[in-house]
Structure formats: structure tokens, C-alpha cells
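Researcher: Structure prediction, please.
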Amino acid sequence: MNRALDLLQPYPFEKLRALLAGAQPPATKKPIALSIGEPKHRSPSFVAEALASNLDQLAVYPTTAGLPALRESIAAWCERRFGVPAGWLDAARHVLPVNGTREALFAFTQAVVDRSPDALVVSPNPFYQIYEGATLLAGAQPHYLPCLAENGFNPDFDAVPAEVWQRCQILFICSPGNPTGALVPLDTLKQLIALADQHDFVIAADECYSELYFDEQNPPAGLLSACAELGRSDFKRCVVFHSLSKRSNLPGLRSGFVAGDAEILKPFLLYRTYHGCAMPVQTQLASIAAWNDEAHVQANRALYREKFDAVLDILGGVLEVERPDGGFYLWAKTPGDDTTFTRELFEREHVTVVPGSYLSRAVDGLNPGAGRVRMALVAPLAECVEAAERIRAYLQERQG
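Model: Predicted structure follows.
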């Protein structure tokens, strides 16, 4: 067996199950899960219709590169959304469909990392655990950058030693962040591109939460936006990952894309032809319908705004928590240990959250997730409100 498998840590939800084992929540209170970031809003009916109307494509082998029409719809969406000048994104060279960002992030790491004893993959901390697992299985070492409140929950990139950048092969960024919801500012993205040029590493921007934001007039910038402002029409060393899971409430469709540097995507496509990950044709056709429509995405954001407004109004004054820049998580500071808070909340109120320490790694004695919990506001409004009221009741009882 691959010895690197021994290096993999349990997923946060495995740790959570162990933490809650034996706990007896009140039977009179229905369970409310704020733990798993699975979108619960209704999927767009027109996407389901497109999928159903093309089931005859089950008889067709899909190509790994995907349908030209899908790649073209994605390229057009990137132009509209991130201000990429028309014609810069060649749909045939700069875009690849993928079966969701998780699959793509893992596969990309295997394809890009050049195994060597000093190879580093740099990521935020806390982080989406696939970054770490993909790194270890690719034969590199993860290097974690703490995301602390004093730096807006973004890494302090200025504090990273040049020696780390020199060994870095991939820099993972996540904007809005999971679990913090922090956005990486446009100027910082430009700074990171300059560092990538100086030290020759690839920026892999996980932007699967990019369409969940609060101000309709100011959508957040992405790595492609930075390329556009810099006149970087070749997207050198820049690759972005997007998905329909959060944007369109389609986690079961397993549909997303990778876009950016054609010199990276060309060998990545070669890797994928061996990887066996072609997206079914009917899924591609349904995806085209989703990428071509923004009305359902705006309606989705409105639902999240309503939930954040209601929940933050209830928790204000009893819990240290702020509205994030984007995404659907609250990154709340706990009064005391985050694991104790999580178990007690479950035992007393039948509400499940995730300890922040389970989403982070301790480096030099510091775990940046310790003393915080992640709450996913994915349930319907009424459930989120009830959960917030139970959390407030628990905290008030705890305070005496």
C-alpha cells in the first residue's frame, strides 16, 4: 500500500462523531445540523429538466475535455463575472470541466507536484482538508499559514519567509474562505501573482463559494479578476476552481470547472484522460443551463442574506461572531474550549456544529481554529432561527 496513506488524518466529521459518541441530547428537541456544508436550498428546476431531457446521452461515452458548448458557456461566464476581456479565455485551451472542485483539487495536486524531498504545498490554516490529503499523497509536505482575526482571517503573506516560497510548488487560496468566509483582497491577489513569478509556483484558487456574497452591487474579485487588471492574458501560473454545488444548489450534480494557464491545463488534461473522470454528457448539458442563468443565483443569495440577518440578530450580545465577507458559514468565537462547547451544545440543545480545532492544524503550538466553531447556515430559515435561539439559550444558561 502507498505509505502516504498512513499520513492522512481523519476527516473533521469522523472526529466530530467520536466527540459526540455517547452524548444524549434531549429527545423533545429535533436535531438541527449546522455542521455539514451541504446546500439545502431547492435545486433549479430547469437544470433538472435539462438533465432529464438528455438521458439518451447515457448511451454516449463522454470526452475528458468536455463538450465545446460547455467550455464556451464557462468561458463566457468568467468574462461576465470576473471582467476578463473577451477572447482572452480560449474555451479549448483555458477551460476544463471537472466533477466538482473536490475531485479536481485532488487530481490537480497529483498532476502538478514534482516529487522531491523539499517540495512544499502552501495552504491557509484552517483549511479544506483535501488540500492536505492531496499534498501528502502527491509526495509533498504541507505548509500551513495561520488565518487569524488580527489579519482579517487571511494569511499574513508578508510574513512568509522567502525560503518557503522558494520551495513552494502550489499555493492554495480559498476565497471566500472555508470556514472563515474571508475574501482575499484584489491587491493581495496581485501580490501573490508577483510572488509566483518570482519563485515559480502555481496559484490554485479555490473559489467554490465565490457566488455567495451580500452586496449585489459589489461581487468579490477572484484570481481571474487580478489577471485581467494586470493584463495577464496568458493567466500564467494562475488556475481557478469553480463549482455549481454552492452557486446553484447542485451538490449532487458533481459539476464544476478549472480555468487558467493553458500550459498547466494541457498536461492536466493528459493526466485526466488516465484518471477516468469524464463528465457524463447529460450532466454537461444540464451544467450549460446553470452557467447561463443568474436569476436563480441571485435568489439563492437573497435566501442566505435573510438567514444571516436573522441569526446574527439573535446571537448578537451573547456570542462573539460577525458577518463574513462571503460563503454560508459563521466562524464564531466560543466562551472556552471549542470541543467542550460543541459537545455541551449538542447534549443540551440537539444542535450540531464543528469545532474549529478540527478544521485546523497546530503549528508551533498554535491552532488558529481553537476556540471557534463553524456553523453552516444551510438549513431552511426557520431551522436556522430555531438553532440560533437554542444557542442563545445555552449561552445564557452557561453564563448563569
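Model: The first strand starts at residue 32 and ends at 33.
Researcher: Thanks, that helps.
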